[in-house]
Fold these 2 entries.
Entry 1:
Amino acid sequence: MRSLSTLGFLIGSLAVSGGYCTADIETRSLDQIHEAAKAEGGVVNLWAGGDEKDQQNGLKEAFETRFPGMTLNVTVDLSKYHDGRIDEQLAANNLYVDATFLQSLHDFPRWKSENALLNYQPLEFKNIFDQFKDSEGAYYGVFIFSWSNIWNTGKVDAASAPKEYTDYLKPVFKDKLALTYPNDDDAVAFQFDLIIKQYGWQWFDDLIAQNPRWVRGTATPATLISSSNGSYAATFTSGIGLTSSGSLNVSFPTQGQFVSWPQTGAIFADAPHPEGAKLLTNFVLSDEYQKASGWSVRRDLPGPSGYPTIFDMPGTNVTAFRDFMLDRAAVERLRFRFEDKIGTAQGLSPLVDDL
Ligand SMILES: *[C@@H]1O[C@H](CO)[C@@H](O)[C@H](O)[C@H]1NC(C)=O
Ligand SMILES: *[C@@H]1O[C@H](CO)[C@@H](O)[C@H](O)[C@H]1NC(C)=O
Ligand SMILES: *[C@@H]1O[C@H](CO)[C@@H](O)[C@H](O)[C@H]1NC(C)=O
Ligand SMILES: *[C@@H]1O[C@H](CO)[C@@H](O)[C@H](O)[C@H]1NC(C)=O
């Protein structure tokens, strides 16, 4: 495999100097790709970033329903662990992952420079916002993730519902906050970084004085506050979608900044099931899947019901997280500053029973 892909790279380089485009540009219909993927074996192995093992079950079900005969073998784990394991497979020349969707946005340009990614432009590639994609198609945003204010409406009255980050310092939230360790998840670290740049480290010290419960995983706070009997009532380090759901309600700050980013996907150059991987990326970028997934990575689709597009949404800068992630030295400095104040993340990864 390796020698073939090296040869492909050399030919690609020659093609560039000859003025040809080296990316594989998709022109087939989804049904034609489906036929090719079934002929190849009908399987696609996806490693997806996340912190609960069921987080991509909706994608698995939608994909397998839409494409009979296909199996989406999806494994969810923290992006910061998936990437190292992918590096191990790449180093051993023994890759069985076909595609990955991760929050570790800094990995993608590195993998591209190592010729580990397939330059491939899915059908909707031209419609993906330029800021979210590699020009050759080595990687691209697949959906938008974000944090929001979330509270349990049975525990927080409407007048106290949080909107700005300073609201969490009010007495009503003493002993009531469940928050993900910022030193355990870089997208949470960035959320705290944005808040502290605006309100200062005093805000963080005042937050600690509220005695929040620090947890691992970004789904854990929402789970804790949704319980009707527990004392935890609010968080700003989870994402549950854009509308209220059960006992939980959602708001977004307009003075403060909430974190949003394009969860980014790529197909590996040596993917054992390239047609299955292509079918998957074309499906997640389709109208059908994008319209059902909150904010879209495509500029030709409107914002979700009641919201503008992510670029027009007040209170967030969807391109800023990538720059944050690329500066690893700054991320590490920040992480240790949090660790010094609140200690190392305690407890097992919420996915540990998966390993
Ligand atoms: C499915 O994924 C798991 C975990 O990544 C892997 O161990 C297993 O071999 C995969 N199954 C197939 C059929 O590829
Ligand atoms: C609290 O509620 C959860 C379900 O939401 C239940 O599993 C748990 O046993 C309850 N705890 C107490 C002390 O009632
Ligand atoms: C949810 O919060 C919004 C404010 O962000 C409010 O307008 C709405 O009425 C709330 N919905 C519920 C069900 O509490
Ligand atoms: C958003 O963030 C990017 C990258 O950090 C920056 O270049 C840009 O100016 C920001 N946009 C706005 C509207 O602040």
Entry 2:
Amino acid sequence: MDGENSPLFDTERAKGRKLHRVFATTVLVSIVWIWVYRATQQPPSTAVSGGRRWWWRGMFMAELWFGMYWVFTQSVRWNPTYRRTFKQRLSQRYEDQLPRVDLFVCTADPKVEPPMMVVSTVLSVMAYDYPPKKLAVYLSDDGGSELTFYALTQAAIFSKHWLPYCRNYKIEPRSPLAYFKSASRPSNTKQDQDYTNIKKLFEEMKDRTENVMNNGRVHDELRLEHKGFTEWDSFTSSKDHATIVQVLLDQNEDAEGHSLPKLVYLAREKRPDHFHNFKAGAMNALIRVSSKISNGPIILNVDCDMYSNSSDTVRDALCFFMDEEKGHEIAFVQYPQCFENVTKNEVYGGSMRVIFEVDFHGLDGNGGSMYIGTGCFHRRDILFGKSFDDESRIDWKMENDHKETLENMIEELKNLASCTYEIDTEWGKEMGLKYGCPVEDILTGLSIHCRGWKSVYYNPNRKAFLGVSTTTLDQTLVQHKRWSEGDLLVLISKYSPAWFRLGKVNPGLIMGYLIYCLWAPSSVPTLYYSIVPSVCLLKGVPLFPAVTSGWFLPFAYIIVSITAFDYLEFLRCGGTTKGWWNGRRISLYKRTSSYLFALLDIILGSDLSFVISSKVMDNDVQARYEKEMMEFGVSSPLTTTVATISMLNLVCFVGVVMKSTLMDKVTRGVYYETMAVHVVLCGALVVLNMPLYWALFVRKDKGKIPDPVTVKSVVLALFVSTVLYFM
Ligand SMILES: *[C@@H]1O[C@H](CO)[C@@H](O)[C@H](O)[C@H]1NC(C)=O
Ligand SMILES: CC(=O)N[C@H]1CO[C@H](CO)[C@@H](O)[C@@H]1O
């Protein structure tokens, strides 16, 4: 098996696909059955008159939508694949010819992304198990902050001790922040001594950096330590400054005389009259600058909060690119985005378990994972806009013939990262990452798929990258608003999966993209389904068949089977029962607020708003997060919408319970028999919303729903339900 030609990676299809297909067929039959019911049955007599007919049609539309959407979600469950790599073979065949790899870390603001976290991520990727001469690490600082630069100079010094320590003791993870948080003292005495020393160095670096952070500036005597600080002499603000490029490590050696990777700091030029295109702009500047310095044919990009949790990652990725048979088709290798600070029952659905354990494996089976902007290895030439029909194989031995010293290149490098460089070029359009979309990553990945390339999703057991997830409801909703808005923009972009290259890209992959692109519009049917049936329950207008009717069957089957499937799938992905329940809640909130506002933003043409989610929390918030209490805290339109809808359901539910106590036994029996599905729906919503009612009326801490939101939502809910009731 280990011959010359044995592959460097292996692809397995999931087991039990046939069984799943049978199940999916039964669900599909029920969905069609429901459509037939809506299309052929008259609305019940009490509901016939006037505008009420529309309620029935609305239900039909919503069910058409849900049914179609469900079909799309099956595309990723049809053909999931799992990948395995053979690093041993890679090393046997190519150890001396391994390609150079450029590692990009992006940060944007030292306030929300603390420099200590940033440089720990930088150190973790510097310490990959890979020939250091062939690694170059770039930090793009869109905040242009001297604080971040200071931290990086300190990290450069620390790396001279840290890399030997990692190498000698093969420690994991190699982010010092994560390592010292989790590691127990080594038992071996030699290592113990080294551990003590390195820990001391780390603590000193941390103290120096935190001092500088607390002062808010780098003091004059510290500025003398590195000539790079003179760059800040002409610095006005983070939005108005010249390019800063500093090569911190070039051909340096560590404390034991081994080579160190290159380390480069870049803050591209920013001017108020030039739009900077957020992270896509930063990435494109990095691509150009790095092409002059190291020009590695493989590029990794990670967000500054995602440290490497496995030093094998580069070699794993190369197993895909360098595979003799299939490697030349692969444009990028995406790793899942995993989070270390998600609590056990993930109140905000933070782990996105099902997406990364199910959806992405399914996308991979259909031609390739999406590119999600972090934890992804790209082939450089493909980012430059190459199509698969062009010469797709690359020569891994190709060497960089830049013999100029970096010092002489600084002016040229600065020009590459200037505001005006991209004017009248294809950058942001056909070259590099695409501009004009809040999810530039998805759009870029899609355009690569449209050019005929495949991609790979690699999800090893020991996670390759660990990041920080959102920790309040508002952050979560805002983040999803941005994603869903961006995804919808992708749908209406030139590269839309709905029309571009139709017939050329695998239809399964197109459906996979649609799952995400249709997030925003799914808000409308969800909203409809979570309001109208509840109000009709109160009115006694049945929109669903009675329990005694044959039409009741498909509804019952769908409710039971989809819920059970969803639950079991979640458990299979490693979740808990409570985590699943929390996930249902947060998904309802996202759909009825984030997605809705994203949709409105696009229809009304409001601006792309880009909010970096904060990575720092105050202690109170942190404590509540660890207790898994939902954090409402801020009043925003998003929270108000969520609270209003849940109040409306409470009003309807309580209303109907009161109404039914006034009925005699027989009437009550008939009422519940005809309204059974309504009761289940509304009841489920009420139970799901329990923590929210608690936050509205009972909680006293700062994370409760703020009073103005409580008042607004109660008034709104009463108003809306009254209006609908008398319609
Ligand atoms: C991260 O790496 C450590 C050390 O190798 C490992 O024990 C841990 O399971 C990894 N974390 C995840 C989430 O895979
Ligand atoms: C950076 C951060 O917020 N980390 C926190 C993640 O959550 C755990 C608890 O689950 C905290 O201990 C970390 O401090």
